[in-house]
Amino acid sequence: MQLHIDEFTLKHPGVLAIGLNEGAARALPPSLAAAFGGELERLLDEQDFKGKAGASVTTRALGRVAATHLVFVGQGSGSPADLRLAAGAVGHFAREQGARDVSFAPAGAVSPAAAEAIVEGLITGNYRYDRYFAESSRKAAIERLIVLNPNVSKAALETGRVLGQARSLTRDLVNAPAADIYPESLAAFAAGLASERVTVEVWDEVKVREAGMGGITAVGQGSDRKPRFVHMVYRPEGKSRGEIALVGKGVTFDSGGLSIKPTDGMLTMRCDMGGAGAVIGVMSALEALGLPITVHGIFAAAENMISGNSYKLGDILTILNGKTVEVLNTDAEGRLLLADCLSYASKLPVSHIVDLATLTGAAVVALGEHYTAMYADDDALAAALSKAAAESGEGFWRMPLEPLYKELIKGEVGQLKNVGGRLAGSITAALFLQEFVDGPKWSHLDIAGPAFLGAPERHLVKGATGAGVPALLAWLRGM
Ligand code: BES
Ligand code: MN
Ligand code: ZN
Q1: What is the CATH number of the domain that holds 104?
Q2: Is 316 exposed, middle or buried (0-12, 13-18, 19+ CB in 10 A)?
Q3: I need a labelling partner for 364 at 20 to 30 A (CA). Which of 47, 83, 399, 425 fits?
Q4: Domain count, the chain
Q5: Residue 335: active-site member
């Protein structure tokens, strides 16, 4: 997508979007209002347009201006978060029209953060996963964006592009069928992101087993597609101002294993690498953002399948940190992979570990598709992540790491068991993970709800959302 900056004129082709703040929802650019002689104000009145963030009124331009379509879009308060929603609605509309050219006239001054949000929102709203449709039936994506405000920062627009593309990259990985994205191909994709500042190490199933990663080995052993462990590192160009680790669950397909899921529950389980996908998306953006901290991106990729070699109920696994786990349900596989990854990350010289995982149906039942269940063993980390989520348009809701519930995951033959029963399922999963964190401050993000939508939400289409990518990038940039 090309990015341009220009004055407001009536000569721009394609979709012309006019941002309007709540409380000033009739403040149209005078030349535009004049070209339509009062009709536009009437249209907005008819539609009861108030300028709420992301609300829009659209019309064909009928030859009165160069554009084919006009979009009046609410900017709410004009905050970056509201501008992101506004631009998202524009991106969404542009894709429905197959518009290659979009110009956006934001109301008022545009701060750098707002300029970033405009481009990011536009890319996010414009996103579709359509590679399996015939080329002739695909609607065109935006190729050229002109921001109609001469004072907007070009650098901020470019940053917005990096943020938006990182999220789209994650969405593509998560939406891809399990036949395309399996442990080896996911690892290979990560390896393809190696660059001057990013190194990528991939361990195959033999190395994983020999290293003592009993969780990854067990979960992956039932599949013909063997598991992988991946460790990416981004190192900044100058002096590094900190060091953190991101850890992702990369179950490229979750059949449930011998504790097999019913069809309905299995249908979308290609999304179960959403955590790893988010880690990869974040890592893909760091060099372009010039982030001054060292970031480790770690994930285990495995397919949870059924075969003569599947791991079994009653198996006792030894995780990398030496703890033993009884398997009571092979469908609680994500925590077994993460246990090895968190043990590994705990040995790195990092101050913080944040893991992301489509971990439990219980988190979806509790919070739905809009909220990530956030756990943290440190209040400052929880506060920083909440702030980053709010700024970047994500919903994080803190849940308790209630020590009383540790009882529920005590093993009988091993130290721990991998399921804690019906109650507090997302919390007992988090408490299980906590057993494998030793040293760094830690947060766990259960993204099972937000990672993959069953129904469209605002400017996000059904399917993968890139959950976690915006908030983590905001958090890292704010460190
Ligand atoms: N991948 C699932 C969790 C999930 C559910 C993600 C819905 C996205 C949408 C996970 O591996 C799983 O199967 N969890 C079980 C745990 C249970 C066996 C303790 C669950 O939530 O039912
Ligand atoms: Mn499962
Ligand atoms: Zn799973």
Answers
A1: 3.40.220.10
A2: middle
A3: 83
A4: 2
A5: yes
Q: Has residue 385 been placed in a domain?
A: yes
Give the number of the ligand closest to the Cα of residue 372.
Answer: 1
Greatest distance between any 2 Cα atoms in the chain = 80
Nearest CA to ligand 1 atom 8: 448
Ligand 1 contacts (CB < 6 A) are 254, 272, 329, 331-334, 358-362, 364, 419, 425, 448
d(CA 288, CA 68): 34
Q: How many CB atoms lie within 10 A of CB 294?
A: 20
Is 100 assigned a catalytic role? no
**Which residue, of 116, 151, 186, is where some domain finishes?**
151
Q: Are residues 317 and 372 in the same domain?
A: yes
Q: What is the pLDDT of residue 276?
A: 99
Summarised one tens digit per residue, pLDDT across range 411-460 is 999 999 999 999 999 999 999 999 999 999 999 999 999 999 999 999 99
Which structural domain range is residue 400 located in? 165-477
pTM comes to: 0.98
Q: Which of residues 85, 116, 151 is at a domain's end?
A: 151
Q: 157 lies in a domain?
A: no
Spatial distance between the Cα atoms of 383 and 393, rounded to a whole number of angstroms: 15
CATH of the domain at 335: 3.40.630.10
